[in-house]
């Protein structure tokens, strides 16, 4: 079996500040999802639940944007400087998944 190519994230050391921010955001989202579960269990008015789902979706999209910007800043930029195109292709695939 051919050895898998190293991808930029395997070489990236995420700055501690960024790691803490992402963890904080994801913990908050986790709490929001638990709140939605409780709302369903308590038979809360459906439109109120949908509003909370929209808030979670927005928060997840925000985390995705932050990760994409980090990837662009580190991996894509470094690859483009060295003439490689793989990271750019990878970010396009990720963006397509996010947007659609």
Return Rg in Å. Answer: 18 Å
Report how far apart the termini are: 33 Å
Beta content comes to under 5%
Number of helices: 4
The string of secondary-structure elements, in order, is HHHH
Shape by Cα distribution = elongated
Major beta-sheet overview: none
Average of per-residue pLDDT values: 86
Low-confidence stretches: none
Q: What structural class is derived from the secondary structure elements? A: mainly alpha
- Overall helicity: over 70%
The number of strands is 0
Family: Belongs to the FrmR/RcnR family.
GO biological process, one term: negative regulation of DNA-templated transcription
Pfam families: Trns_repr_metal (PF02583)
Protein name: Metal-sensing transcriptional repressor
Description:
With 100 residues, the protein is mainly alpha-helical. It is built from four helices and no strands. Helix 2 runs antiparallel to helix 3 and helix 3 runs antiparallel to helix 4. The radius of gyration is 18 Å and the shape is elongated. The mean pLDDT is 86.
List keywords for this structure.
Metal_Tscrpt_repr_sf; 0% strand; 100 residues; 4 helices; mainly alpha; metal ion binding
Provide a compact summary of the structure.
The chain has 100 residues and is mainly α. It has helices at 8-11, 16-41, 46-81, 86-99.
